[in-house]
Structures are given as structure tokens and as C-alpha cells.
Model the fold of this input.
Amino acid sequence: MRLNELGLNTDEEIEITGLATDSSKVRDGYVFFCLVGRENDGHTFAADALGRGAVALVVERRLALDCVQIEVDDTRSAASLAAAAFYGYPAKRLKPIGITGTNGKTTTTYIIKSIIEAAGRTCGLIGTNAVEFAGVKREPTLTTPDPIDLQSTLADMVAAGVEYVVMEVSAHALALRKVDGIMYEVAAFTNFSRDHLDFFGTMDKYAAAKKAFFTPEHARTAVINIDDAMGREILTETGLHTVTYGVENPSDVFGIDLEMSAEGLSYVMNMLDSVERVKFNLTGRFNMYNTLCAAAVAAALGLPFSAVVNGIRNVKKIDGRFNIINTAKCSVIIDFAHTDDGIANILRAIREFAPARIITVFGCGGNRDKTKRAVMGKIVSTMSDFCFVTSDNPRYEPPVDIILQIEQGIKEIGGTNYRPIVDRKEAIRAALEMANKDDIVLIAGKGAEQYNDVMGRKQPYNDERFVMEIAGEYGI
Done:
């Protein structure tokens, strides 16, 4: 491909072999995009990129370097649009579906994939847990990959004959223009609550990033949770065709007569006047909403109701989402819940069927939103019988400092039903030792993650694997 074919407003016909936003990944014939961020400015790595073989730079300001430079207003958007062109606009040969919202994105994407497959179609998936398509499964890089990786993955899906792709679209991805150049058949909204204030600063800015997805530049149809306050705002503001879902307010897709147990949930679904009782293998009222969202997406795509019912039923397990391990000593639930709203939802769901105590092991991520730490402490102390406050990807923060901030919230409500243990393995072991036969131990925050992020090193670790090790030790 030639440089002037990337849509970058240049007549240069230089032959190019690749794109990069990280100078260490530049090879001969690459175009290097100087991304501007809060911590790093890609312009400072331009000379390094040239030394590694870059034939052109995409910049936001002219540099004193003797090379081809293309000046743009936003290098992030330019990188996304150029990546789409470089890989042959793969999204145009797929039917993309994007899911955004604070909680529920991962579960909802897996349900949608299952529904599409139940309708006899092929579907790829991109999200927090994995990239999956046509029998291929790859480890994820980010919830929404960076644009060059994203477009490369979409191109691989096209080559494999995939028809649909469902993906998580994070607020970060929207703010950083990662999905520019992709037109989604459906943009779906799950819910909105506190998170990512370390990045956005205010809830208003976080909300604005989410809302930006529901515009004609990004999508053709919007699927909206009408029971969520921000969902109702999107409904009034978007210019897109909409399909709504909910429980408490009139909507196009809704559910009644919810029944829940440890084995899952069932309820009567009405999807555009098609009615049937649906069954889902994960429990919790929040999962009712996740299945309704998936059904509304199916309605927007024109998929049959039978595929919705069968697709929901066919989902047996989603790694790191309400995974139940039954031992002779107690039951253990592993879940990714890492926000105040998310952990309240999971504890509320467990309380619906818990025969005895709920013992929770949780923490908060380092170098992330600090405002939710004390709030999560209050919620977990209030809704659990006992809790262990521990580490959860401390990154570059001292774990003790994070735990102290969580403890502050517990102490504010006079909570005494907790114990701080910095080492996550020790905290889980202590929780299992405390538990009696009918107790439930909730291990929250990491879900299916295969690492613990400490001082820039991702140390191999997985909650479920460690629980099974302990179960083997104790014979439980």
C-alpha cells in the first residue's frame, strides 16, 4: 500500500509496510503516529521511530526532523482511520455490534454471540476475556484493543468467513478515538455508575464519553436500557433508531416474573410481542438485564425469537462471571465485580439464595479511580457477614495504602466485620478456613484474569486456579 492511500491528506506515494503507535514496534517502511497522552507524548519518540525504519510521521505539530511529516488535528483519530484503510476496511464486510456501559459488557457480548450462533450465523467476539472467532481464541490486550490491533483482528475475522462481530467498547476507547472508522450495526448501552474517575476526572466527562457512541458517526441503531437514568438521557438525545429494554418502564423488550436460585434464573420475556419463559445459567437480577440487552440487540438485527431463547439457554458459563465452585466445605463464587455498583449487584444476587453467611474477599486496583474505594468498603461491609480486604492489581501503589482507603469507608459506618490481609492468596485461604458448610465465599475483582499487576510486572495468578489448589490441599 502507498502512503497516499491511507486517507491522511497527503499526495506522497511512498510504499508502506505497516503502522505503529509504539516506536519499539516500528520496522522498515512503517508509518509512525505520534500519539499525545496524559503521561507520554509520542512526538518525543519520533526520532527513535525514524531510526528503526519509519518512512513517515503523523504529527500534531511539525518536528525539526528531515522526513515526511503529515500534520493532523488528532493523531489518535488519524491512526484509527488509517488502520481501517490499511487493512481494507474490514468492518464494512462484517456486521459489528458494540456494547458499552459500566457493568455487564462481557456477559452481554457472550450472550449475543450465542444468540447469533443459535440463528445459524457466525460471530466473532472481542472483549475483556478474550478475542474469539472461527475456533481461534487469543488472549486479550485491552477491553477494546488499540486501533491497529483492532483492525488487524477484524481483517482476520473477515478472512475466516465471520459474518458478525460483537465487541466491548469501553469509555476509554471512545475518548481515545479507538473505534473511529467503524460503523456499528447496533450500539448497545447496559448501565452507568461510578468508575474510571482517575481517567475522566468527573462523572459528567465519563458520561459524555459513553454518550458519544450513540451518534450517526458510530452506529445505525441504539439499544438502550430504559431503566437506567443515563439510558433515558441517551434515548432523548440520540438521533438513531432505538430499541429499548427494561423491567420497570415500558420498553420494546421487557421481562416479568423473575425467579432466581443458585442454579440460574428464569423469567417471562416479551420481545416485540413474542413471549416465552427464558432460562439463563447465571443468576442475579443484573443478569436479567444482560439477557434483555442481548435480546434487544437481536431484535434490532432482525434475528428470530427462537434464536434468542435458545442462545440465552446455551450459555453455560462465562469465565470470571458468577463462577460457582462447590466444595464439601463451602461454596465459592468468583466474579469480576470491581465497581461499587457491580459488587452491590453481585452481593444482592447472592443474598437471594445464600443459606448462611456471605464472606467476601475483595480489593481495589492501584492507579485507578480512588473515589470508589471507601464506597466499596461501605457496601461490602454492609452487605457481607464478613470481609477480607486485600490486594487487587496494586500496580504502582503500595497495597497497604489502598487497603487503608477501603478500610476508611468501613470505619465510617462503624463496621468491624473485616480483616485486612495484603496477600491475596492468604486472604482467600483465610476466607475458606473461616467458612462453614452452608457459607458462600465471594472472591471479587479479578474474575478470569490470569495475572496480578504489581509494579509493572504481571505475575501469573488466577483466583479460580488458586481456589482449586486449596480445595486439593484440604480435600474439600
Observations:
- The chain has a mean pLDDT of 95.
- The longest helix spans residues 285-301.
- The first strand starts at residue 18 and ends at 20.
